[in-house]
Amino acid sequence: MMLRDMQPAAVAGEFREYHINLYGFGARKVLVTDEEVPYPDGKLIVSRTDTRGIITHCNQSFVEMSGHSREALIGAEHSILRHPDMPGVAFKSLWDDIEAGRIWHGYVKNLRGDGKFYWVYATVIPNVRDGRVVGYTSVRRKPSRTKIRESIALYQQLKAQEGSHWDGPEA
Amino acid sequence: METIYQLTVSPDFTPEHISGWYIYNTWLQRNLGLHFHLEMYDSFDAQREAIRQDAVDLIYANPYDASMLVREKGFRAVVHPMGVADECVVAVPVESAVQRVEDLQPNARVASTDDPDIHLVGMIMLEPADLNANNVQSIVVDGYVLVAKALLKGSADVGFFLKDAWDGLSNTVRKQLRPLVTSQISDIQHVLLVGPRLMDSAEDIQNLMLRMPQIEKGSGVLESLGFEGWAEVNQEDTEFMIDLMDTLKAR
Ligand SMILES: Cc1cc2nc3c(=O)[nH]c(=O)nc-3n(C[C@H](O)[C@H](O)[C@H](O)COP(=O)(O)O)c2cc1C
After folding, report:
1. I want to staple B82 with a disulfide (CB 3.0 to 4.6 A). Which of A46, B119, B216, B228 is the partner?
2. How far is the CA of B149 from the centre of ligand 1 (A)?
3. What residues contact residue A1 under an 8 Å CB cut-off, 6+ apart?
């Protein structure tokens, strides 16, 4: 399913517009605000994908935090959550690791359907059934503010190095 | 000679349900027509050693051990109990200055039992305070009442409780403690698993458990275990829970 552009009607308050280029799926217009939604205490945010990164399952916390309906999520590319502040190398290392059968950990800033964002600490593992990788599972938990601050600094640096292949406000 | 199979129960059983497991064992043998010996290990280590030596045939297992049982020992999960949840309460003494998990400091003294899934989930709930196994003092005690005691005595700053055990604390004790956060995971639960020697009976055991409330004395036995009933677990449910546990164990 092609990811649709975000519509201003879905977003509360002032927003910035970015055109992000998603691997294999082309451009998507996203609308981003500065409002953070706190991670829900005590919960795990869980999703599973097929081997191409298409969402096949997610738990209720995932649905609630994403700001999308379950119907919009199942069958969509996982990059539906891709925030323009995330450097591409973070996801390259994710895919390199899981495609090689390794576990990946990382701090991720995610974009909600309403333009707000939330931070998670994610662990992604390959799902092996009868010796074959049939998909991937990601389990997110609440990150510390220290780790979030470190990640913000690191990701800004990485984005600066990558150069801007975004067509956004700073471009 | 008739085979005697071994039934065992995750050592985190609550004391008031011990007799329930003996009653369950009797009921199971009568309704399944197989001979079981119930072995109650007093620690997770002792139980894991028995599993390693292939002594166990039917086990009501902690989710933490499900991975080893399924992937290394060829067990198959058939049902999980209804009406009980493997959730963890993280609590402090009521007068503690700590108001949120994030207020906890490095070197905090953490009281818990050897119950591996509750310890794991509890430690994950301390991560927002930048705490981990390397910068806390872990105090392992013999039961949840002793976790409460350690907090009341001031020998621990924070404690982990199985939700059911927390709910079972006396009012006077609970009033002197304050929960900071309670996990709401629900995808992690104890399961009843059948071992390789008993695999031919896996379906019979599953069906028997599912029909348990309708069979003579079954609902009474369930009551003495503290369960509302059993629900079916298929292979993919189990694999998913194991994947989830693996992400939590990975560091
Ligand atoms: C199991 C799994 C979970 C993922 N979770 C996220 C996520 O929460 N947020 C996100 O931006 N990307 C996530 N990704 C990565 C996306 O598939 C994608 O690589 C990323 O959004 C960047 O988009 P791009 O690869 O099209 O450049 C996940 C991938 C997998 C396999």
Report:
1. B228
2. 45
3. A54, A75, A76, A77
A171 pLDDT exceeds 70? no
Q: What is the ipTM of this complex?
A: 0.90
> What would you report as the CA-atom Rg of chain B, rounded to the nearest whole angstrom?
19
- Inspect the interface and report whether the beta carbons of A123 and B128 lie closer than 8 Å: no
The whole-number pLDDT of residue B123 equals 97
Q: Which residues of A touch B237 (CB under 8 A)?
A: none
Average pLDDT, chain A: 92
Q: Which residues of A touch B184 (CB under 8 A)?
A: 42-43, 61
Residue B180 has pLDDT above 60, yes or no: yes
Q: Which residues contact A161 (CB under 8 A, 6 or more apart)?
A: none
Question: pTM score, two decimals?
Answer: 0.92
Which residues, judged by CB distance below 6 Å to any ligand atom, belong to the binding site of ligand 1? A 22-23, 47, 49, 53, 78-79, 81-82, 86, 88, 91, 94, 108, 110, 124, 136, 138
A2, A55, A82, A125: which to mutate for ligand 1, most atoms within 8 A of CB? Answer: A82
Question: Could you give the CA distance from residue B249 to residue B251 in angstroms, rounded to a whole number?
Answer: 6
- What phi, psi does A152 have (nearest 5°)? -60, -45
For B3-57, how does the pLDDT look when each residue is reduced to its tens digit (9 = 90+)? 999 999 999 887 889 999 999 999 999 999 999 999 999 899 999 999 999 999 9
What is the pLDDT, as a whole number, of residue A27? 85
Q: Is the pLDDT of residue A22 over 90?
A: no
Contact predicate B132/B124, CB 8 Å: no
- B163 secondary structure, DSSP code: H
Query: Once rounded to an integer, what is the mean pLDDT over residues A107-118?
Result: 97
Within 10 Å of residue B212's Cβ, how many Cβ atoms? 21
Q: Which residues does chain A have within 8 Å of residue B101's beta carbon, measured at their own beta carbons?
A: 41
- In chain B the domains, ranked by start, together with CATH numbers, are 4-84+187-249 (3.40.190.10), 88-182 (3.40.190.10)
DSSP string, B13-42: --GGGHHHHHHHHHHHHHHH--EEEEE--S
Reading the block at residue B199, the tokens are: 């695999």
What confidence tens digit (pLDDT) does each residue in A47-78 have? 999 999 999 999 999 999 999 999 999 999 99
> For an interface test with B, which of A141, A145, A146, A148 has the most B Cβ atoms less than 10 Å from its Cβ?
A141
